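Objective 1b. Sequence-to-structure analysis of Aldo/keto reductase.
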Amino acid sequence: MVNYRYLGNSGLKISEITYGNWLTHASQVENDVATACVRAALDAGITTFDTADAYANTAAEQVLGDALKGERRESLEIFTKVYWPTGPKGPNDVGLSRKHVMESINGSLRRLGTDYVDLYQAHRYDVETPLEETMQAFADIVRQGKALYIGVSEWTADQIRAGAALAKELGFQLISSQPQYSMLWRVIEDEVVPASKEVGVSQIVWSPMAQGVLSGKYLPGQPAPAGSRATDEKGGAQTISRFMDDAVLTAVQNLKPVAEELGLSMAQLAVAWVLQNDNVAAALVGASRPEQVAENVKASGVTIPAELLQKIDDVLGDVVVRDAGKTLEGMPKTRPV
Ligand code: NDP
């Protein structure tokens, strides 16, 4: 079964393997497969589920809500997010203004079929809304009981510090940061993680398998396997392209002996690796098939000895991205439309 970790400086425990439905529900996979993946997650002991209003332009929340129908609400931790454009994508259907935050939570709760989410996350930093306005809206949502805790995603170290200070002033808890983190993408290590530790925030990390690349199934110079994300023209092929480089794919193949030494699959090694970081509360994994969920959860509780962590670094060498500036670089400079 899956181990639990505290989320930030709070009393909330979440499953250290968390299931996410970006690009899959209401998009790459049919609803029956989506439901089977959620079922596989529940059967394996995953209790924490992550989605966003913007996934499949709100339809992914509905699919997840339907798949979780009938489950005991108190036995689940349901997370969603707000920021990216939704619905007809009008001028106020985006961002972290009070108007959009207060409206978006209502739509999310309706689609998810629940009275509250356990964690409500700012999906990015909104450079066009005063931070005070956003945090006041979050404070009101917490007071209304529509969200129990607040988190952010892909915020810089300074933004996390400023957000946490305001949350404290307003009397609610900012407990999580949701950044990309994997053996290949380590940009949070130098700044975001130390700042988060200072203010009682932990990481729920996305794409721990680099969208499937670290499973080792993409071979350099060869076509991607049928049905994989790299062949998904609805979005996956484009988002995974940053890793579809022969130097990266070759280095990943060279990790196989490390996985074998630990008795793990490559996918399990990737998930276990992010969980070695003690500021990480959960690896947020996706799946296009229930068998993947069953495989990936076995990464829970694995310890990778220091010499093998070093071997991983030696094998991957300079294909690893570590530049802390990438968080700011990747942030929208204006509100997206
Ligand atoms: P992963 O790195 O875990 O990639 C998951 C994909 O890898 C699956 O959909 C599947 O794709 C493939 N895969 C999974 N398990 C295996 C396996 N055992 N063997 C081979 N292939 C496997 O994470 P995601 O990129 O899906 O992101 C996870 C979650 O993180 C999202 O659902 C979302 O909740 C969150 N997220 C948050 C973001 C943010 O901005 N806050 C951004 C992106 C994601 P396939 O079978 O199609 O190849």
